[in-house]
Amino acid sequence: MTRLLYALAGADKARQFSPHVWKTVMSLAHKGLDYETMPVGFTEISGIENGGTATVPLLRDGDKLVSDSFAIALYLDEAYPDRPSLFGGQGGQAMARFIESWSQSTLHMAITRIAILDIHNLLGEADQAYFRRSREERLGASLEEIAAAGRAEIETFAKKLQPLRNMLKTQPFIGGESPLFPDYIVFGALQWLRITAGTTVLEADDPVALWFARCLDLHGGIGRRVTAG
């Protein structure tokens, strides 16, 4: 059975940077499932699988198509119950919903401001035009103005991770002794920043930085296959 993962990429198709795609990459690795990656640009998404999705990641697993990283993780746990669980039960799913909401409301907006010009510069010409138009309409400012505001985010970003830092004093992963999907949610956000901007926002000995390094090393170091920006 052929598995295909459609993944957002820049002009260099090897630079797959989407935080949501990285959640799915880590989920598939967690499950020990083989797949082929199909890199796409922003303007190519509408044409994949006969218009089967407006966003990526999109996973084709045989005849099954699943979009959205959270939905994909739920699907993988249901379809492959004999392999390591991504949630560890309904309680883990509920925890993951909270972590997803916190990550997207607190971390993603800050990373958008920090990395927005770096993301733009990773893209091919058509995708750059789409990205500039759509983000400036959505955020109500030019990319340059957003990036200028992002400089202040660099100084305060580490503080946003204090809840995670406190928890890591007692356990190595959000999931406990080993990672679960909630780890991959936050990892995806920091991996997005690492690949696009490469901006240092954590001290080397910060418990969150040490946790992130452990996540990069998971599953044969799959997180390190794309170098930092």
Automatic annotation (TrEMBL):
Domain GST N-terminal: 8-84
Highest taxon of the lineage: Bacteria
Name by which UniProt lists this protein: Glutathione S-transferase family protein
Record organism: Shinella curvata
